[in-house]
Structure formats: C-alpha cells, structure tokens
Amino acid sequence: NAGVMQNPRHLVRRRGQEARLRCSPMKGHSHVYWYRQLPEEGLKFMVYLQKENIIDESGMPKERFSAEFPKEGPSILRIQQVVRGDSAAYFCASSPPGTGADSGNTIYFGEGSWLTVV
Amino acid sequence: ILNVEQSPQSLHVQEGDSTNFTCSFPSSNFYALHWYRWETAKSPEALFVMTLNGDEKKKGRISATLNTKEGYSYLYIKGSQPEDSATYLCAPLGAAGNKLTFGGGTRVLVKP
Prior knowledge:
The complex is a heterodimer of chains A (118) and B (112).
Chain A: E1 5-7, E2 10-13, E3 19-24, E4 31-37, E5 43-50, E6 53-56, E7 65-68, E8 75-79, E9 88-95, E10 108-109, E11 113-117
Parallel strand pairs in A: 2-11
Antiparallel strand pairs in A: 1-3, 3-8, 4-5, 4-9, 5-6, 7-8, 9-10, 9-11
Chain B: E1 5-7, E2 10-14, E3 19-24, E4 30-38, E5 45-50, E6 56-59, E7 62-67, E8 72-77, E9 86-94, E10 106-111
Parallel strand pairs in B: 2-10
Antiparallel strand pairs in B: 1-3, 3-8, 4-5, 4-9, 6-7, 7-8, 9-10
C-alpha cells in the first residue's frame, strides 16, 4: 500500500508564475490536509478537504491560493502569481474515509513538495 | 486556534542517555493528542495518538504520557541512539476541531 504521494518533490517558479502541487492520498483515504512549512517555522495548517468538498480552509491565504480534491484524481494545491514569500515546503496528509483527525485516527503525511520562487 | 507549546526547542543528548520533553496545550475542550517524529527531508512519521487522561503509550524505546486535566504530554526516549535524532512534533485536537495544530517541535540531536 503506497503512502501519500506528492509531486513534484521540487519546483522552481519565477515570480508571477503559477505553481501546482499534487497529492495522491493513501489508497482508500478520502480526507486530505495541506500544511505549509515556511523557512525556520513549523507546520502550519492550510486546508482540509474531502472528495469534492472543502471542509476547512481557515489556514489558506485569502488571495492567490486555492485547493481542490476532485472525485477522480489527486488533490491539487494551486498558487497563482507566486511571490518569493511563497517559497516553502508544502506537505499533504491523508486519513481514512468517514473519519478525520478528530476520530482519533492517525493521519499520514507525504514527503512534501519544496517550492522555490526566484 | 490552539496554543501549543513544546519545550525545549532543541536538545543535545549523549548516546545511551535517556531524555524527555514536553508538549503543553489548552486543557479545555481536549479531544486527542498526536505525536510525530520528523527527520529532515522526510515525511512526519506518526508515533502515537492519545485520547485518555493518564494514557501511556510505548513504541520501542519511545514512550509518551498524557495529562488532559492540566494540558500536557511528555515524550520519553530511553537509551538514546543517533537514529533518534529528529524533530518531535505534538499536535492536539480540540473537540470541535477537525485538524491538527502543530507545536514548534523539539529538535533532538543524539551525539555518539
């Protein structure tokens, strides 16, 4: 059973370009979380999604950032018109169907996507 | 937003020594506490999920205790080895919450 898969692992974008980060949850998982690690900081929650629904996006910047988790395919975190301050590691995590972290179940993390904006 | 404090921020331990560190969180509205071990350039690895006051969990040489009434958890490493070097993260979950809020972590470096 493959773990949470993120790609690309490393992405370089020029200021003003778009970045798309993809996350395939563990097989059978239908809950996805995105976290961001800025340089010298810890993991900060961004958004929690279930299939075709955004459940909690309280950690998402109001502009330029969006996330989706379609019925088919991976979850996508999209950053439009990137700026240098978006340079960070973006981690995706997933948990089993019918439950979220509040169930007491473990959530499993991917290895992260490192975005560098030049 | 939950206020989560981990101390110390970093810790140097001699190989073979035991150590412990703390995660503090709001005791009201508590539901669960997650501990993760995180090595640089890897994914955070789940260690424990704890829900009951007085709970104690163990995985190899690593164990954790939980006090939900006073809002803290200790993580212990017995007989530290170089491979224990990592950042240890705790993340409490409130009863009304649906996401983990991580502390800043305790960075452990075990010196041979």
